[in-house]
Amino acid sequence: MTRAEEPGTARLDGPEGGPPALLVRGLCKSFGGNDAVRDVDLTVAPGAFVGLVGPNGAGKTTLLSMAVGLLRPDAGNAWVAGAPVWPAQDADRAKALLGVLPDGLALPQRLTGPELLTYLGRLRGLPAPVLRSRVDELLDVLDLAAAGRTLIGDYSTGMRKKIGLAAALLHGPRLLVLDEPFEAVDPVSAAVVRAILDGFVAGGGTVLMSSHAMALVERLCDHVAVLDRGVLLRAGTLDQVRSGHTLEEAFAELVGARPPARGLSWFGS
């Protein structure tokens, strides 16, 4: 077993030169004595589109939250283009380079989408003409312009995902970290989001995205990292992780998933 295959350690390398888009070293987190993330190392090269996959409860959200500064780790740190995420008071440069879509993002219920984006843009210090242009373009591309006067509290779940993605993209980040960005998004909107993310990577950006949808990860991502029970089992290019199988088959083998030996007893009775 090479070091790239050792539990807790992985590299997702690209062209050399300059710091990684994201460097994670020794991240750990436990809750009530239970390890949610155990000593995870991960290196993501600029320009990579990485899918983070794992069973429910594998620690994906916990890992991503620590890597972007939303959850304080028990140990370890993360760096965005060489800038530290922790301690929080030293993370201004890292946060300027990050666009984040957390799972279960809490949004202000009494603002409209344009009001939210304008507020966030002003906090970021974007010049007024640039801000207006970006807000209009994001709302148009994400098919939210017609809901310009609708309060976010009245948004559907899919609309909330899209306005959250707009907020993550607004300031022009170089690294997007997205937790289940396609959950509850309709097929038409999903195609738009895929096109946006493809364009972001084509323009030199980097994406780290968690998802349960293996077919989606295979379609979008060029690298995959597999997390189970807080341990990073394997990471590499899509073909390296699949090893001649489908991603779903390789994933099931890595995490030791087995189909049930029999169906429910009352079926067929």
Automatic annotation (TrEMBL):
It comes from the Bacteria. Pfam families: ABC_tran. It is found in: Cell membrane. SMART domains: AAA (SM00382). GO terms for cellular component: plasma membrane. Residues 22-254 form the ABC transporter domain. GO terms for biological process: response to antibiotic. One of its GO terms (molecular function) is ATP hydrolysis activity. Keywords: Antibiotic resistance, ATP-binding, Nucleotide-binding, Transport. It is a peripheral membrane protein. This is Putative ABC transporter, ATP-binding protein.
